[in-house]
Amino acid sequence: MTEPEDQLSRRNWLVRLSTASFGTAMLAMGSGAAAEPAQPSAAGNTLGARAYNIRDFGAKGDGKTVDTVAVQAAIDACHSDGGGIVLAPAGVFVIGTVQMKSNVTLRIAAGGKLLGSADGKQYHAASSIPPLTPRFERCGNVGLIYAVRAENITIEGPGTIDGQGAEFRSPRGGGPPPSGRSGDHRPYHLLFYRCNNIRLRDIFLRNSAYHSVRIIESSFIWAYSLRIYNRVNYNNDGFHFVSCRYVHVSDCDVQSEDDACAMFGSCRFVTIANSTFSTRWAVFRFGGGNPENIAISNCLIYKTYGCPIKMHFGPQSRAQNILFCNLILQDVTGPISIDLDDRPRPGEKSREKGYVRNIMFNGLRCRVLARERQLPDIPFRHQDRPGENRQCIVLNCIGDGFLEDISFNDVRIAYGGGGTNQEARRRVPRIAGEYFEIGTPPAYGLYARQVRGLSLCNVRFEVIKPDLRPAMVLDRVRDAGINALSVQGNPEAMAALRFIQSGDVLLSATRLVSPAAVFLRVEGAVSGGIVVDGGDISRAAAPLALQDGAEEKAVKLRI
Length: 559
Known about the structure:
Blueprint: H1 10-30, H2 42-45, E1 50-53, E2 62-66, H3 68-80, E3 84-88, E4 91-95, E5 98-99, E6 104-108, E7 112-116, E8 143-148, E9 151-156, E10 160-162, E11 188-193, E12 196-201, E13 204-206, E14 213-216, E15 219-224, E16 227-230, E17 239-242, E18 245-250, E19 253-256, E20 261-264, E21 268-273, E22 276-279, E23 282-287, E24 292-304, E25 307-313, E26 318-332, E27 336-341, E28 355-368, E29 393-398, E30 403-415, H4 421-425, E31 446-449, E32 451-463, E33 472-475, E34 478-487, E35 497-500, E36 503-512, E37 516-523, E38 528-536, E39 540-547, E40 555-558
Parallel strand pairs: 1-3, 2-4, 3-6, 4-7, 5-8, 6-9, 7-10, 8-11, 9-12, 10-13, 11-14, 12-15, 13-16, 14-17, 15-18, 16-19, 17-20, 18-21, 19-22, 20-23, 21-24, 22-24, 23-25, 24-26, 25-27, 26-28, 27-29, 28-30, 29-31, 30-32, 31-33, 32-34, 33-35, 34-36, 35-37, 36-38, 37-39, 38-40
């Protein structure tokens, strides 16, 4: 019985199809038709798309044998064939310095681990990466995995890269570390210099000897779904970008000892989103250069005992258009420090004027501790700097310039409190350096010096324990608009708000939520153009106090 056409098995269908094709080909040949041109070989069809298993190149993966040569051979072969995938399968592969090359994807299987050798002799500097100076721009040129002037590089998981960073930390009391390699000669997990199209994804980076991911003067970078745990050595940064462009970080978790996400030099067109961060020092760290067009959003910062958002710029820096939006800061110190040293350097005759402007903070919820703490999983003790205690938001410019157009919108911060009258009356030294170098500021909520174009809207500062410092101190601030500010006062403090030599300030819909001796204290003969318009300051025993030559005409009370 003949099988119905719609019930043909797959095997019979293929047999009939093959027979028909063969008959058609024979008929064409018999009729004198020209033969079809030969097709490329199967090997040629897969150029640029092959997989190169490092075990096929001699890697043992036994956790003891140094497999650097095998891994490098697989990368070189992949690159020579036009690219593809270099696969590290299950196993522990001990390696020293390995160089990534263009069009290569390094994939580490779920059961695979690249383990940095504990022998410092297995590492070497990338000779084409400029070495150690200037500071912050280039502070090391050794990588466990590195690339120079390459493009289309991917490093992906779901496996692990472990740097064995504890082997590069000197023992207590000094002396060389077990690896024999220390300081700026320690290897990073990943080091890229002047590369384009870098993708890092779905990988676990742990225990680097130095920074985990350091990328210099590169463009088009995507880092997503990374977990970085880096707390076994000093300067254990998470991400460290130097003068990079078109950078996109998302869905990452970073627990570091030092800066969790540093952006030095002229980083531009950067987005960082949907990630969590914890560190002893700073999370978002900016230093020098001309950073601009940077958006940081939807991130959670927790257990950060330094300054979560830290920006420090020198006289020729030009920083602008930097947005922080929808951030939760839980159990941190700091929390925000922006410094500009506008003074010319010694011997400098003329220079292009620098600036820091258009810095925006929208949608922040913060719980700020009064004192730093020791993170329990860091195996060495950090020095407790006195200036780290009872910090607040600090906007600090010295020299002839101003920080410009700094705004806070929809911000609520609960501070640990505990400030004293002595701290409330101290003069902040005229330095612009690390946040702790200015000492404990004379405000518990916001201290601003030399800012022009300051905006606060729907901001609330409160304290967990009583604090004898004002909630906000404006020092030589001009052109400020403050709307819907709510602050806690203290009857034993000098005032809830304190303005020093400041002017052109509008306070509207201000709310004093607890008793205070004085609502606003104004100091200095140059103060003027201050308007208090509406709001509820009825909990203050006196609305205004004038000091150091300030005149009554400097302030208009419309309450």
